[in-house]
Amino acid sequence: MSLLELKNVSKIYGPLKALDNVNLQVENGEWLAIMGPSGSGKSTMMNIIGCMDKPSLGEVILDGVDIAKESGKKLTEIRRDKIGLIFQQFHLVNYLTAVENVMVSQYYHSMPDEKEALEALERVGLKDRAKHLPSQLSGGEQQRVCIARALINHPEIVLADEPTGNLDEANENIVIDLFRQLHREGTTLIVVTHDPEVAEVAQRTVVLEHGRLVKEIMNESFET
Amino acid sequence: MFFRMIKGALFRQKSKMIMIAVTIALGSSLATAMLNIMLDVGDKVNQELKAYGANITVVPKENSVLDSLYDLDDGSETAAAHLKEEDLGKIKTIFWGFNILDFTPFVNTAVTLSDGSTAKLTGTWFNHHLALNTGEELDAGIHSLRSWWEIKNGQWLDEQKESIPANGALIGSALAERLGVNTGDTIEVKTAKGSQSLQIAGIYDAGGDEDEQLFTLLPVAQELAVAKGLIDSIEVSALTTPDNELARKAATKGPAALSPADYETWYCTAYVSSICYQIQEAIPDSVASAVRQVAESEGTILDKTQLLMILITILSLFGSALGISNLVTASVMERSNEIGLLKAIGARDYRISGIVLTEIMITAVVGGVAGYFMGYGFAQIIGHTVFASSIEMKPMVIPLVAVLIVIVTLAGSIPAIRMLLRLRPAEVLHGR
Predict the structure, then answer these.
(1) Nearest CA distance, A148 vs chain B (angstrom)
(2) Which member of A53, A200, B15, B214 has the lowest number of beta carbons within 10 Å of its beta carbon?
(3) Interchain CB contacts (distance < 8 Å): A and B
(4) What is the spatial distance between Cα A198 and Cα A139, in angstroms, rounded to a whole number?
């Protein structure tokens, strides 16, 4: 059984169909890239997969549960327990240090553990920047804190929305290397991007246009 | 983690939190100042109103009954019954003795003047020094009880000044004009029991019936009335608490109608009725009664002043609530990304609301405490400006202000919390 399955999913805003009858399956441990131009429905799809929004029509089966039918309270639980989120704008809490930003995720999941949070930062190469505020970190460092925060609760899926959109090439490579490492460890990765270079390193790429899945590309040269 | 988040929010967003604390401090300071003034204004206004004369009169029980039956209040005739001069000091020994600001005895007698006409002569204390059995010493007399009298010519009599003649008298302006006498002149007064020449020490203008009278030292009038050691009545100026339901019940139905608990409360509160009751207990065969006009005016002025203070307090707190509401709502709007993120990573609404409310309440406590001390300062400034004395800070204001600040802060936070609950992470994190 697939870890995630979208069946005939549509998201309709008045006359606009942000997603139009999308069908998609994501297997456990797969690295999927979702590509498309601006306004193609990428963020809408990410919001629905990330339990931050519900489809107007269709089913979204995550780990055997149709999240389209769940209450807001249950969606919060699913988000907390099964999903790690990475954002283009990082969205770190500006008055908390790097390690505290990671611990916040633990706090709402179970129990904050500073040692474990420091290990997560070490994994992304930021242990020595643990006590710095976001304003004292570069964009690449902030994104790595964001990745550490997404991974700290061992989610079943890591959802990344344009994770390299605000990064220079050097930091982009660091982030992609981190994704490779996660993939090797068996983490399911869904990366929303409009950058072909980021999409090319994924195992599979689906292309969205006007809310419809128009293309699916298997990366033959995929390296783990 | 909760406290690390709170600490981070408070210390790393200082300017925002200081703004909220300042708003709360302003509301708290006004509430503190107004509540303290409101609670203290009773005593202050009372003291101001004392300038308008006595608020209690004491007469012999027998005369009181006759007065009630026959409305004998002109005092021109020597009274049938008397109080004892030696009992006067007992007024200061009652439970509320410290609230007795001043008092003076009166002996009234009708005298015949040199032109054959009659006038009322009243013997009294002007500035009499009294040494009580308790060791307390005080000065009492009519001088401060008739503060509105204008001495047009001459000076007040004063028992403590050796230059004042033993037969000195003050004469009302109307009577002086009628007799054609002036300060330093001597007039002859006669009663059925004797005669006496009085030396005019001063002419006063009272603006009423008293302008047709003569006032002299107590022993002089006692001798003319053949009432040595006796007095007809006493006027007392006392600091009183405005009447409430309990005081009105005691005044109309009598203290005996009160339950033991109510009686104790009434007796231990400085109501004019309880002070009258205690004076009656201290002075045998006397009846003490409130001068209703003065007591009621005091009550009305106090009620209006207190209402004004309450309205100012409510308005200041309402303004403070609006300020807090705006600031907290602006703060939540500014932090919408952060709140959206917390929701996205699994925080439930109540946990985020808890953090925001805790931050605000801590800020409110800091602002409230600072405001209390600012309010203390404001109260003193107002006290010195308006009443020329300090405002006593009442301990009961502290919990009152604390509760008000909590209510105002919570009420002011409601719009922000509602906005926070409506916030959807997808909308703020992706800017949709």
Answers:
(1) 13
(2) B15
(3) 77
(4) 17
d(C-alpha B320, C-alpha B342), whole Å:
29
For residues A7-12, average pLDDT: 92
Final residue in a domain of this structure, among B290, B319, B340: B290
Chain A residues near residue B1 by CB distance under 8 angstroms: 100, 103-104, 106-107, 112
User: Looking at the predicted structure, is the pLDDT value of residue B146 above 90?
Assistant: no
Give me the count of residues in chain B. Answer: 432
Give dist(CA B421, CA B417) in Å, integer.
6
Residues of B in contact with A117 (CB under 8 A): none
Total residues found in chain A within this entry: 224
Distance to chain A for B423, nearest Cα, Å: 11
Q: Are strands B233-238 and B56-60 parallel, antiparallel or unpaired?
A: antiparallel
Q: Which residues from A are below 8 Å from B425, CB to CB?
A: 52
Residues B144 and B283 in one domain: yes
Domain residue limits at B182: 55-290
Say if CB B273 and CB B257 are below 8 A apart.
Answer: no
CB B58 within 8 A of CB B286: yes
Q: What is the residue type of B349?
A: D
pLDDT mean across residues, chain B: 84
Same domain, B282 and B312: no
Structure confidence by residue, pLDDT tens digits, B224-278: 888 888 999 999 988 887 778 888 888 888 888 889 999 999 998 888 889 999 9
DSSP-assigned states of every residue in B161-219:
-TTS-TTEEEEEHHHHHHHT--TT-EEEEEETTEEEEEEEEEEEE-SSGGGGEEEEEHH
Q: pTM of whole model > 0.80?
A: no
The answer to whether B273 and B290 are in contact (CB under 8 A) is yes
Q: Do B12 and A95 touch (CB under 8 A)?
A: yes
Identify the CA nearest to B410 among candidates B321, B343, B309. B321
Q: Among residues of chain B, what percentage have pLDDT more than 90?
A: 23
Q: Which of A80, A94, A112 sits opposite B346 (nearest CB)?
A: A80
Closest CA to A95 of A129, A135, A127: A135
Same domain, B223 and B85: yes
Burial of A189 (0-12, 13-18, 19+ CB in 10 A): buried
Closest Cα of chain B to A90: distance in Å? Answer: 10
Taking only the tens place, the pLDDT of each residue in B165-207 is: 888 999 999 999 998 999 999 999 998 888 889 999 999 998 8
Domain-terminating residue out of B232, B265, B290 = B290
The SS3 call for residue A154 is coil
Please indicate, yes or no, whether residues B350 and B380 belong to a single structural domain of this protein: yes
* d(C-alpha B428, C-alpha B339), whole Å: 9
Q: Do B285 and B395 fall into the same domain?
A: no
